[in-house]
Automatic annotation (TrEMBL):
<dbReference type="Pfam" id="PF13365">
    <property type="entry name" value="Trypsin_2"/>
</dbReference>
<keyword id="KW-0812">Transmembrane</keyword>
<dbReference type="InterPro" id="IPR043504">
    <property type="entry name" value="Peptidase_S1_PA_chymotrypsin"/>
</dbReference>
<dbReference type="GO" id="GO:0006508">
    <property type="term" value="P:proteolysis"/>
</dbReference>
<keyword id="KW-0472">Membrane</keyword>
<dbReference type="GO" id="GO:0004252">
    <property type="term" value="F:serine-type endopeptidase activity"/>
</dbReference>
<feature type="transmembrane region" description="Helical">
    <location>
        <begin position="63"/>
        <end position="89"/>
    </location>
</feature>
<feature type="transmembrane region" description="Helical">
    <location>
        <begin position="7"/>
        <end position="40"/>
    </location>
</feature>
<dbReference type="Pfam" id="PF02674">
    <property type="entry name" value="Colicin_V"/>
</dbReference>
<dbReference type="InterPro" id="IPR047680">
    <property type="entry name" value="MarP-like"/>
</dbReference>
<keyword id="KW-1133">Transmembrane helix</keyword>
<dbReference type="InterPro" id="IPR009003">
    <property type="entry name" value="Peptidase_S1_PA"/>
</dbReference>
<dbReference type="GO" id="GO:0016020">
    <property type="term" value="C:membrane"/>
</dbReference>
<dbReference type="InterPro" id="IPR001940">
    <property type="entry name" value="Peptidase_S1C"/>
</dbReference>
<dbReference type="GO" id="GO:0009403">
    <property type="term" value="P:toxin biosynthetic process"/>
</dbReference>
<dbReference type="InterPro" id="IPR003825">
    <property type="entry name" value="Colicin-V_CvpA"/>
</dbReference>
<protein>
    <submittedName>
        <fullName>Colicin V production protein</fullName>
    </submittedName>
</protein>
Length: 396
């Protein structure tokens, strides 16, 4: 149990005590306000998104995070308003409820509302690139228990704008094969220095896709002069692509010269790209240090230390969820978010040992990277190809 868990428990006890004192009518007002706020937030999210589409607003991660939190914020605000209305109703009515029933009902209702608030807040944090809060959520025994109790994704409960923080969806790592999370020590924070040393070879990729619902954003790395490796799901369906070294400065136009929907690997050829190529390492074993670098949630260059849980052959699906594939992958203990897709997995010597492509569906502190061996053929094919290749269908 972490300090964050203790804080959640203390706040929960406070909520139960408040419900006990206020009684069931006030607590029901709080619950009703919470539900109304959540429904209103869900209804407004698509409307706000449609108004913002095509403007610079949706390119600002801070604004996008604020908009994505709308259901959570409105739920809390309306809960406070509902509490006040409930207290007023209780004050102005003659209640036949006994004190005991009133207090017990208030306690139960307040507890349910508190659990829902924590659940939604955790879901919002999971959609952000905030590393430390994500670790608090991932390590929380309390939140894990809530997730097991509520059979629905809290990220989905926040609505479409929360999904908008996720620029490109991950493919399914496992299909017909259970995911097993192997225990391993915490990542080494000193690996941040290694991540800083490679930032001039890591690029942010943004796409325009006229036939897709939205464009996408992801990460990539320079592996030969003028060649960038990334995931196929980052560029799927794209009509125009641009890369920025370190996520800032001049955008370079790029062309897809290799696209493999099964392996989830793509290669971009970028004319005039001024960025050094990274070297490849020999590989990693269980417990080895590594670092994930890239641009989660269309944000700035982000460094996330990681540690290898194991190397496995994972039976999953291609980027369109239509074909069964087997990939050699590293299971990592670390924070991986949408937007990290296509970024390099770096070893302690600053060499590329894999390509980040997915995160766990069940554990917030587990991500997955394709091994060097898994991506080697596609990278070689891309280096030999000069003609632009089709980018397949959209994934969104």
């Amino acid at each position: 149990m972490t300090i964050f868990d203790i804080l959640l428990i203390v706040l929960g006890i406070g909520a139960l005590f408040a419900g006990f004192r206020q009684g069931i009518i006030t607590a029901l007002g709080t619950a009703a306000g919470f539900i109304v706020g959540w429904i209103l937030g869900r209804l407004l999210s698509p409307f706000v998104e449609s108004l913002s589409t095509g403007t610079d607003v949706m390119d600002n991660p801070g604004v996008l995070m604020l908009l994505a939190s709308m259901p959570l914020v409105l739920s809390v605000l309306f809960a406070f308003a509902g509490s006040g209305i409930g207290a007023w109703i209780k004050h102005n009515m003659d209640s036949d409820l006994g004190q005991g029933i009133d207090a017990i009902g208030g306690t139960i209702t307040a507890g349910v509302v508190y659990v829902l608030v924590v659940w939604l807040a955790a879901g919002f944090i999971r959609t952000t690139p905030l590393v430390e809060p994500n670790r608090w959520v991932a390590d929380s025994t309390v939140i894990a228990a809530i997730d097991r109790t509520i059979p629905y994704s809290s990220q989905n409960a926040l609505g479409g704008l929360a999904k908008g923080l996720s620029a490109s969806g991950f493919p399914q790592v496992f299909s017909g094969q259970p995911e097993q999370i192997r225990g391993v020590g915490e990542p080494d924070e000193s690996m941040v220095d290694v991540g800083r040393s490679v930032d001039d070879s890591v690029v942010k990729i943004t796409t325009t896709a006229t036939s897709c619902a939205t464009g996408s954003e992801g990460s990539g790395f320079v592996y030969e002069d003028g060649l960038v490796a990334t995931n196929a799901h980052v560029v799927a369906g794209s009509t125009e692509l641009a890369v920025q070294v370190g996520g800032k400065g001049r955008p370079y136009r790029a062309e897809v010269v290799e696209f493999d929907a099964e392996a989830d690997v793509a290669v971009l050829r970028v004319a005039g790209l001024e960025a050094p190529a990274l070297d490849f390492g020999s590989g990693l074993g269980p417990g080895d240090d590594s670092v994930v670098v890239g641009f989660p949630a269309n944000g700035p260059y982000t460094i996330s230390p990681a540690r290898v849980r194991e190397k496995i052959n994972a039976r999953g699906l291609d980027i369109y969820d239509s074909q069964s594939v087997v990939r050699e992958v590293y299971a990592l203990r670390g924070i991986v978010r949408e937007g990290n897709s296509g970024g390099p997995l770096i070893d302690a010597d600053g060499n590329v040992v894999g390509m980040v492509f997915a995160r766990s569906a069940t554990d917030d502190e587990t991500g997955y990277a394709l091994t060097r061996a898994e991506i080697a053929d596609e990278l070689d094919a891309g280096a030999a190809e000069r003609t632009p290749q089709p980018t397949g269908q959209c994934t969104n």
